[in-house]
Write a structure and sequence with these properties.
The structure is a single chain. The protein is an alpha/beta fold. The chain contains nine helices and twelve strands. Helix 5 crosses helix 7 and helix 7 packs across helix 8.
């Protein structure tokens, strides 16, 4: 048995940490580009829906077709977990391809990374508003309303975690990135796609290139709901973005922004109670 962490991509790249990683061409069914990677339009798949499901077409492919693995994960061709556990890992956000090549061992996975935990997730990012308010401002609020009704209708036992995670908190693990056992991944994906498939039937998907990614945006929030409901033991790991050029963003600035966001969120909650 082995680990396979999917690297979702739509273009060729030259930095693959080790054999635990499986580059997968997402949206191949609607792409004329040929890449030397696993394709997400083989076997049972939803590759043709990549514009709406984003990297989830890779997750769906793994759920339905990936055998003989004990651990499954998902990352992006420009977003990788830094598993090193070093202080430096928490001090940087953006890296260059050269940095990745020189420190590739930081991004390699081994079984010890998950030991003692149920799941590995990105370190949480902080917003100034609740996740519901943030989603409503950035996307279509009527779609979120459909999502809420769908979750409660299909899985009423998740209502408390849904409301706690999305209405009462202002931070979450983004990017749909994770590493977990195949069993836990299967349980999550079965739950996730049963919800998203129903939502897909109920909403009118926007033709806007950004908003049409609606189901991928929803799943970023739903992963956090699933984790809260099952009270999973989470290992939060920093994610580094591989930039084409060094657009390094100060972690100090990022931390100050998050503190500021927490303060704004707290004051808004206090004011809403008056």
């Amino acid at each position: 048995m082995s680990t396979k962490i999917l690297i979702c991509t739509h273009k060729e790249f030259n930095y693959i940490p080790d054999n635990s990683f499986l580059p997968i061409h997402v949206g191949k069914e609607i792409s004329a580009v040929d890449l030397p990677y696993q394709l997400d339009n083989t076997g049972t798949n939803i590759s043709s829906k990549n514009k709406n499901y984003c990297e989830l077409t890779a997750l769906y492919w793994a759920w339905k077709n990936l055998d003989k693995v004990s651990t499954i994960g998902l990352c992006h061709y420009r977003r990788f977990f830094d598993f090193s556990g070093t202080k430096t890992a928490n001090k940087i956000i953006n890296i260059t391809e050269e940095y990745f090549s020189n420190h590739f061992q930081n991004y390699c996975y081994n079984e010890n990374n998950l030991e003692g935990y149920d799941i590995i997730l990105p370190k949480k990012i902080v917003k100034t508003r609740s996740l519901y308010s943030h989603y409503s401002l950035s996307h279509l609020p009527e779609d979120f309303d459909v999502l809420e009704k769908t979750v409660i209708a299909l899985y009423p036992e998740y209502e408390a975690s849904f409301k706690k995670t999305l209405f009462e908190t202002n931070s979450f693990s983004p990017f749909n990135m994770f590493v977990a056992s195949k069993e836990l991944t299967s349980n999550y994906t079965s739950w996730l796609f049963s919800i998203l498939e129903k939502v897909e039937q109920e909403i009118t998907i926007s033709s806007n290139p950004y908003q049409e990614r609606v189901l991928g945006f929803m799943s970023e929030r739903l992963l956090n709901v699933f984790v809260d409901h099952h009270q999973l033991k989470v290992k939060y790991v920093p994610v580094h973005f591989v930039a084409e050029k060094n657009k390094s963003k100060s972690v100090l600035i990022q931390q100050l922004m998050e503190i500021n966001n927490h303060i704004i969120f707290w004051f808004r909650k206090r004011l809403s109670r008056k």
